[in-house]
Design brief:
There is one protein chain. The chain has 312 residues and is of the alpha/beta class. The protein has one domain (3-310): 3-Layer(aba) Sandwich (UDP-N-acetylmuramoyl-L-alanine:D-glutamate ligase). It is 31% helix and 24% strand. It has 8 helices and 13 strands. The chain has helices spanning 35-45, 60-71, 142-155, 174-183, 195-202, 251-266, 274-288, 301-310, and strands at residues 3-6, 10-18, 28-33, 50-57, 75-82, 89-94, 100-105, 129-133, 159-163, 190-194, 217-221, 227-230, 235-238. Strands 5-4-1-8-9-10-11-12-13 form a 9-stranded mixed sheet, with helices on both faces. It has a 4-stranded mixed sheet with strand order 3-2-6-7. α6 runs antiparallel to α7 (274-288) and α7 (274-288) crosses α8 (301-310). The relative contact order is 0.15.
Length: 312
Amino acid sequence: MSIVCMGEVLIDFVALESGVTVGEASGFVKAPGGAPANVCVAAARLGMPAAFLGQVGDDPFGHHLSGVLAHEGIDVRGLLFSREARTMLAFVSLAADGERSFSFYRNPSADMLLRPEEVVYDVLDDKRIFHYGSITMIDEPSRSALLATLDYARDHGLIISYDPNLRLNLWPDAETARAGMISGLDYATVLKVSEEELEFMTGGHDVSPLWRDGMKLIVVTRGAAGSRAYTRSAQAEAPGFAVTAVDTTGAGDGFVAALLAGVLEHGAENAEMLPEMLRFANAVGAITTTKKGAIPALPTRAEALAFMAQRA
C-alpha cells in the first residue's frame, strides 16, 4: 500500500472568525495545506507509505512545509526548492457552516514553475498509486511536468487517481477551467468529484460523460449527505456522518486518501466492498471538518475506526 501525490503544497491562513470575508477577519491561523499534500498526509496517517512530488519556494514557508511532510513520514525527495518564486499562500474565510472562500497568492508561485526535467521520477518506481489534481494543469511549465509524470506512472502500471478540485478563481475563466479539468480525466483509473464539480464539468448530475477508457471507479461526494460510487457494472452509496463542521478545508482530500486505501485493499471494482469503502471515506472526511485547517485536522486510521465504532 503506497502512494505518490503531485501538485501544490501551501500555507493556508484560516480566518479566526466564521462568517466574515478575508478582508474583515481580525487574524488568521497558519495551517499547512494544498489538496495533493493533504491527500498525502491523510494517506500517511491512514498507514500508507507516501511520497510527494512538487516545488515550494526556498523560503521559510517552503522549508516549514517540507518539514511538516517529513514529520509525517512522507518521502520528500521529490519536493524541490525554487529560488525563482515563493511558496504559494492562500487566505481562507469561513462561512458560519464551515464552507470556505479562498484568496490565493501565486503570481507566480514556486509550484507553477516545476519543469518536466526536474521531476524526480524514480520516486514512483516502488509505488502503487499516483494521485494528482487540476491546479497543476493551469500553467506552464507545471502542466507539462504533470503530464510527463502521468505518462511515467501509466507506463509503470500505477493506479492513477484524479481529483479535479474546482478553484475557479485560479483559472482565466470558467470555460478554460472546464476544459482543463475535463482534460485531466484522460489518465484516471479512479476519479473523485464533488456534486458541484460534477455539475460544473457536465452541466448535470449524470456521471456518464466522465467515463474514459482506463477509468474503473467514479465517486461523487455529497457533503453531509454522504457519497456515491459507480463502476462500469455497479453502484453503491453510503450516508454521511452528522458532525458540527468548523472548517471543511481538506475534507474531500481526507476522503480521497481513505477511498484509495480501500482501493488498494479491495480493488477499484469490488461491488461488495464499495459501501464499506465509502463509509470509511465518509468518516475520514467528516472528522476533518471538525477542526480548523486541513492537515492539522486529518485523522489517523485508529481515530477514524473509533469514530465509526461510536456511530455503528
